[in-house]
Design goal:
Elements: H1 3-14, H2 24-40, H3 45-62, H4 70-85, E1 100-106, H5 112-126, E2 131-135, H6 141-154, E3 158-159, H7 167-181, E4 185-189, H8 198-211, E5 215-221, H9 225-239, E6 243-247, H10 256-265, E7 269-273, E8 281-283, H11 286-293, H12 299-309, H13 312-323, H14 329-341, H15 345-350, H16 355-358, H17 370-377, H18 381-385, H19 392-402, H20 406-427, H21 432-439
Parallel strand pairs: 1-4, 1-5, 2-3, 2-4, 5-6, 6-7
Antiparallel strand pairs: 7-8
Bound molecules: guanosine-5'-diphosphate (GDP).
Length: 440
């Protein structure tokens, strides 16, 4: 995410390294570079210009007031201004209604349907809501099927009416059904077109008028850069939406949309999509995003994601097993599946400060666990339960069964033994730095 911008900004800050203080001259040079980096990231020209002007003013103003070195001061000011540009504080969605109705708008392919599913799952699991998803795309039967599949996957009912060609009626009927069935939240996924089109706009305006949503979210593909910003403007002029959802931030998006949209439409970004899986949705926090843009990682979000996936009860049980040295390959498998649920591996790694950059050119395969899983699946239940059973001949059988080599099996068992030792040490009052020390 934003790797290029991150690298370019860092290079700009280097220009101030070794300088005794910020001066008109060195700040101008640095900010020229920062502005170019922003423009190359597809940030709107006017925004880039006013951004660097503000940073300049602040840098010269704060120069004498701080003990920070010029380059550190510049990083801090740029960080705060980036956060400001993206809205500075996090803005929640309104889900107070009974039922509350959320209308989802955007172009075709922006990720509306995927987001509708993700949002339903998030509000169900984190805010104890009982959502109903509504398929209002009367043009593409495939869109209805897609929503039904997602609904099934996350255990959320989907309202659709393939006979009807009237989105207003479908939405109204859905709300009636929600009231009758006790769904306190209705998420209406609408039809999109490939480009802005008058008929589509009229249709969604009519739906808005008929159902009076408490929240209208505009979904946009962050990979489309300035186009995303222009589309946002047109949708906002017609719908006066409440918030923006930026999707596909896991791709190599340059960052322009994330940085420009807020100033252009004056509406907050509320969520970001970071993958195709239903769990790959983050609440948007401007300051954390600024951290990530500047390569400072986003450890807070990483920890939150981990907490979401790891069940406290399970964790306690696991801790007991570890303390008794009973951690086995079944536990290992379930750990792998929990990590996989947290999302794309490279994306996760990039949330750790400093790691994103180090991994820039490293290909982390999301199938990295496949080989490991295949080996464990080739073990008998007894072997998984009691790894010490696995002797030489068993290793050969496991290797053959999983299509791997004996070396692969040996390596996994060795890693497993080491993990087990480390975990035991940690539960015995060891700490993270001790563990890190042992790993290195
Ligand atoms: P819609 O036409 O607006 O409903 O768009 P879809 O929800 O069908 O999404 C279009 C494509 O983008 C699908 O292949 C999705 O899997 C993919 N997609 C949606 N959100 C994300 C995201 O955050 N990251 C990635 N990598 N893909 C996404």
């Amino acid at each position: 995410m934003f790797e290029n911008l991150n690298e370019r900004l860092e290079r700009s800050f280097q220009l101030l390294k070794g300088q005794g203080k910020i001066t008109e001259i060195n700040v101008a040079e640095t900010l020229k570079d920062v502005r170019r980096a922003l423009l190359d990231a597809d940030v709107n020209f006017t925004i880039a210009k006013s951004f660097t002007n503000t940073v300049k003013e602040k840098a010269l103003g704060q120069n004498v007031l701080t003990a920070l070195k010029p380059n550190q001061l510049m990083v801090k000011i740029v960080h705060d201004e980036l956060a400001e540009l993206m809205g500075s504080t996090q803005v929640d969605i309104n889900i107070e209604g009974k039922p509350s109705v959320i209308l989802i708008a955007g172009l075709q392919g922006s990720g509306k349907t995927t987001f509708s599913g993700k949002l339903a799952l998030l509000l169900k699991t984190k805010r104890a809501k009982n959502p109903l998803l509504v398929a209002c795309d009367v043009y593409r039967p495939a869109a209805i099927d897609q929503l039904k599949v997602l609904g099934e996957q996350i255990g959320v009912p989907v309202f659709a009416d393939i006979e009807s060609k009237n989105p207003v009626k479908i939405a109204k009927d859905a709300i009636k059904q929600a009231k009758a069935n006790g769904n306190d939240l209705v998420i209406v996924d609408t039809a999109g077109r490939l480009a802005i089109d008058e008929e589509m706009m009229k249709e969604i305006e009519a739906v808005k008028k008929a159902i009076e949503p408490s929240e209208i979210l505009f979904v946009v593909d962050s990979m489309t850069g300035q186009d995303a910003v222009n589309t946002a403007k047109e949708f906002n002029d017609r719908l006066d939406f409440d918030g923006v959802v930026l999707t596909k931030l896991d791709g190599d998006t340059r960052g322009g949309a994330a940085l420009s949209i807020r100033s252009i439409v004056n509406k907050p970004i509320k969520f970001v999509g970071t993958g195709e899986k239903m769990e790959a949705l983050d609440v948007f926090h401007p300051s954390r995003m600024a951290d990530r843009i500047l390569g400072m990682g986003d450890i807070v979000s990483l920890v939150e994601r981990a907490q979401d996936q790891f069940d406290a009860d399970e964790a306690r049980k696991l801790q007991k097993k570890i303390a008794k040295n009973q951690f086995n390959f079944n536990d290992f498998l379930s750990q792998i599946s929990q990590i996989k649920k947290m999302g794309n591996l490279k994306d996760l790694a990039s949330m750790i400060p400093g790691v994103g950059k180090a991994l820039k050119n490293v290909d982390i395969d999301d199938d990295a666990f496949k080989g490991v899983e295949a080996i464990i699946f080739s073990m008998t239940p007894a072997e998984r339960e009691t790894p010490t059973l696995i002797n030489g001949s068993r290793r050969k059988r496991i290797a053959d069964g999983s299509g791997s080599t004996i070396q692969d099996v040996n390596r996994l068992i060795k890693q497993f033994d080491e993990t087990r030792k480390l975990m035991k040490m940690m539960t015995k009052g060891g700490n993270m730095s001790q563990m890190m020390g042992n790993m290195g």
